[in-house]
């Protein structure tokens, strides 16, 4: 089929990269934004614009909030088909309480899981969530969307397609094909080290695009390979769900054996019991961490089998001072405060897993490394975008002669994915500042409206891309790129201005106060606006000097 091995690798690299590059573009871009997801949250929810707080007192602040929590109407609606008969008005048997915070998170996220009477399946739980101010326990409105951690972050690994975990599977396939594309790309480019230092912007558009594609691919090659690989490792339980399919009986038995070995009860005893002072348990956990030379704050606090004699409290350390994702969990009997278990030192394999997972999820405080993550993600976007452009530039004249629309379709999809995605993200942030705090009766929740705005704006950008790339079928440069760059520049200025108007937090104030979460988001958008203007001007000059394929004098002379 192919003359040699390198040509076959080139075919694989081109076509698998083209088909799944659309997904990888979303993964890379929103993965880059997710590095600062908590900062985007503060921009999107002005009520949270204060400094991060440590885990507050459970006894004084959290316990009354947990006792008052109940599932939201959406959760109740989803649970209706999972029970025999009606749902109770109130769920009174909490199986699980959890509170989580990070060193970048000013708010505290709380979760509660309740046993469901008459559930069709055993161990069915209904969940409740609440986001509170850890300083005084004030709850945020339930309809506030954490745009960074609640939308951009899950978008990069699941595409927010939850049905049958479809989004996870699509992203997993794309990551697997990305590993293949990286390997085939190295095989294609035998002089890879020379290409590391080669970029010729003054050459033809095809040559400069290919140089930039090679450059961004080679410079960030370790980054691209590592994140594709670790992403697959993190979600291996979804891709190979053997524990809950073929090994289901063994899985249940293993959980029971593990409960006996660890002393952490697997089931409720059915005997009511009070909860001792959790604050005292937290203090003991911190004392033990300090004795091991690992003094730190609490990142995660959980209570299992709440209100039962078999209940226990787990206190996990916030691992912000190290790369590996380690919690150093210490577990206490809930009714007495007695230490049941201290998590042992992980095995060598466990340490490797903790390191790889922690390096991917980046919960650490290292700001320079976080910015390198952003640059690596944006380099991946540039590599994919230039690959799209090279594909179109290489084929559009030939397709124009043959009357084939392949190059036009690819160009339209590239515009949709590259610039359209940016327009959608900016449109969502603008909607966040324009939507009223309380939506009218009968309307979707405010957070849902922000999501609808994101997908609606992206759909409009896609329609514009297919409309304004028609000239690619004639071998010409599509104006859609320049027009969407202009749209990005305008929206990226409008969003910070609206933030100023609606909150009063303009750049001079946030920079003067040293409040970098909001100032950083504004500066990032304004920088994007400047780059979009530069790109639009270059595209305008290129369009002005472009000669359509059917009017190329060299081609006409050759034809004559």
Describe, in plain words, how this protein is organized in 3D:
With 560 residues, the chain is an alpha+beta fold. The chain contains 20 helices and seven strands. The protein has helices at 5-34, 37-44, 58-68, 73-79, 147-158, 166-188, 192-196, 205-219, 221-234, 236-239, 248-262, 278-291, 348-361, 367-402, 406-434, 446-467, 480-503, 507-512, 516-544, 553-559; strands spanning 94-100, 108-115, 125-132, 298-304, 312-317, 330-333, 339-342. A seven-stranded antiparallel sheet has the order 3-2-1-4-5-6-7. Strand 1 (94-100) and strand 2 form a beta hairpin. The longest helix has 36 residues, at 367-402.
Please tag this protein with its features.
single chain, 7 strands, disordered C terminus, 58% helix, 560 residues, globular, alpha+beta
